[in-house]
Write a structure and sequence with these properties.
The structure holds two protein chains of two kinds.
Chain A: H1 11-22, E1 27-29, E2 36-39, E3 49-56, E4 73-79, H2 85-95, E5 101-106, H3 109-124, E6 129-134, H4 154-167, H5 172-184, E7 186-194, E8 212-215, E9 226-229, H6 233-248, E10 255-262, H7 268-284, E11 288-295, E12 304-312, H8 315-321
Parallel strand pairs in A: 3-4, 3-5, 5-6, 10-11
Antiparallel strand pairs in A: 1-2, 2-4, 7-8, 7-12, 8-9, 10-12
Helix pairs in contact in A: 2-3, 4-5, 6-7
Chain B: E1 3-5, H1 11-22, H2 24-34, H3 39-53, H4 60-75, H5 79-94, E2 99-101, H6 102-119, H7 130-145, H8 150-167, H9 191-211
Helix pairs in contact in B: 1-3, 1-4, 1-9, 2-3, 2-9, 3-4, 4-5, 5-6, 6-7, 7-8, 7-9, 8-9
The chains are: A alpha/beta, B mainly alpha.
């Protein structure tokens, strides 16, 4: 596969260099730590800081959600690998406006450990970091073991809602609780049609046989719950919506926000084709689509595939979702 | 009492770093079967970076501390904090011990294991590096309790580490990225258990060489 890279071991550094040049009006590299991106406006005195962190290779996540009325700072890891505890700590320091910091991140073993260590290190300097861990990916564990589910594109809604709540002047506990409500209201599923390759590894990290698809695939190519013959977009979209909604169990009439994200190598037109089928199934179940996002919001290098996230809305979530914000990902 | 000098034993850690760097592709290949295939890349990066900061004349404790610090502060992922914690604890345990004997070596392993258990949530049988580390430590302690020499206890440690590593082939992953695979993680070695075996067997070989055994 042909790529635009220099040294395969320096993909993250090179990405960050170009990223901060492209979005200098909104973001900057931390002077404390070259693996932390901060909003130009951060820290904002008297506001709860909102941060996240995660492995690289998911662009525009995670860095692209840094900005105004969005994340204040983001810890950046190697490709598909958690940032260090020090980077999470430095992100919290960049975001600290004196009211504490909330770290909204995804449920992965490495992130859990590094965030836990960062929370302890921050406490030693009097900085409180509250945490919310996203676990919206339906296929990664049964509903009875929701705490084992990984976090995927539902994190975007969690960041948006958490950041909007913080911008309203809410307390640390209020921001944490609202972000928790946002992710609790999200369910996601991924479909993989083709693998991706870490540049430093040099070969695809899994295989998908021609004519098949991986249902429930993870953001790093974690295998799904089953391999099925490739179907039409109409059938796949219906299946994706069904997997998410069967788990969600929403009452008819519930308003929802829908996010369809490509995994990196799926063209936008195919995402629109999928979205048509997804909305048909959502509507058929008596739910009301309030707002839809279709695009490459949370990718996995050049994986072929898509994810669907459905967030059930209440008045507060609707209001916070509509708060004006500015970030490189253009949410 | 058999022992080797802490001072000037940094070469043990450099040897470990060398083995990890040499196994970069192998570890990534194993990881790629049930993980995302970057274990070797990240491990080699961290151990290689640490090797550049470790002088051969340093003490073993200082070298362990350098390695632990690099892994913890610059590598991230799961292995950065886990191995970072292990080596930092190794360093703390033997910091004031001029001559490393079997008791000091055992205390070091115990403290490293405790450090890992403090931040991780895995247990033996979950298909992780603990499946190598725990039996290796147990075998070392058992050999010493039976009255074997430090050197033959190190052999027991190596044998148990390799058997522990191989045991992960028949385990279903319960934690970390591979746990999402369920039954599909069967039949493949765990990458962390494999790197842990490399680390322990290299340390054992290097320690034996210093014991003149």
């Amino acid at each position: 596969m042909q790529r635009f890279i220099n040294n395969p071991d320096e993909v993250v550094e090179d990405t960050l260099k170009g990223f901060v040049k492209a979005h200098r009006d909104l973001v900057r590299l931390s002077e404390r730590n070259p693996r932390v991106v901060a909003a130009q406006v951060a820290p904002i005195a008297g506001k709860v800081g909102v941060i996240t962190g995660g492995g690289s290779g998911h662009e525009p996540a995670f860095i692209g959600y840094t900005g105004r009325t969005m994340l204040d700072a983001v810890a950046v890891g190697e490709l598909f690998s958690s940032p260090t505890a020090k980077s999470f700590l430095d992100a919290a320091r960049e975001a600290n406006g004196g009211k504490g910091v909330v770290c909204l991140y995804g449920n992965y073993a490495g992130d859990n450990m590094n965030v836990k260590m960062a929370v302890q290190l921050a406490a030693k300097e009097g900085l409180t970091i509250a945490t919310v861990v996203a676990n919206d990916d339906v296929c990664s564990a049964p509903a009875s073991e929701r705490e084992k589910r990984r976090g995927v594109a539902g994190e975007i809604f969690m960041w948006k809602v958490g950041a909007a709540k913080a911008a309203e002047g809410a307390s640390l506990e209020e921001v944490r609780a609202t972000a928790q409500k946002a992710i609790d209201s999200c369910r996601s599923v991924g479909i993989g049609l083709g693998p991706c390759t870490l540049p430093a590894v040099g070969h695809p990290n899994f295989e998908i046989a021609p004519g098949t698809m991986e249902v429930g695939i993870g953001h790093h190519g974690e295998p799904g719950t089953r391999v099925e013959p490739l179907k039409t977009a109409a059938e796949i979209g219906r299946d994706m919506a069904s997997i998410v909604l069967d788990d969600h169990g929403l009452a008819a009439g519930t308003e929802v926000a829908v996010l369809v994200s490509g995994l990196g190598a799926t063209p936008l037109n195919e995402l629109y084709i999928l979205n048509d089928a997804i909305e048909a199934e959502i509507t058929a179940r008596g739910l009301v689509v309030h707002k839809t996002y279709v695009g490459n919001y949370f990718t996995s290098l050049e994986m072929v595939g898509a994810t669907l996230t459905v967030m059930a809305l209440d008045d507060e979530l609707k209001r916070l979702l509509a708060v004006e914000a500015a970030c490189p990902a253009g949410l | 009492m058999q022992s080797f000098a802490n001072e000037g034993a940094a070469g043990m850690v450099l040897a470990v770093a060398g083995v990890i760097v040499a196994n970069r592709a192998y570890l990534s290949e194993i990881d790629g079967k049930i993980g995302d295939g970057d274990h070797g890349v990240n491990m080699a990066k961290g151990f290689g970076m640490a090797a550049e900061r470790i002088g051969p004349d340093m003490s073993l404790a200082t070298a362990f501390d350098s390695l632990g610090t690099v892994l913890m502060s610059e590598i991230g992922g799961s292995m950065g904090p886990l191995y970072g914690m292990m080596f930092t604890r190794f360093a703390e345990t033997i910091d004031k011990v001029p001559a490393i004997d079997a008791a000091a070596f055992s205390a070091m392993l115990a403290s490293g294991l405790d450090g890992i258990e403090t931040i991780g949530a895995a247990k033996v049988g979950d298909k992780t590096l603990l499946d190598t580390l725990v039996p290796a430590k147990t075998a070392f302690d058992a050999a010493i309790a039976e009255g074997q020499s430090f050197a033959s206890a190190l052999d027991a440690l190596s044998t148990a580490a390799e058997a522990g590593r191989d045991s992960t082939k028949d385990l279903v992953a319960k934690i970390g990225r591979a746990s999402r695979l369920g039954e599909r993680s069967l039949g493949v070695l765990d990458a962390g258990a494999t790197s842990c075996a490399l680390i322990l067997t290299t340390l054992a070989t290097e320690a034996k060489a210093r014991l003149g055994a």
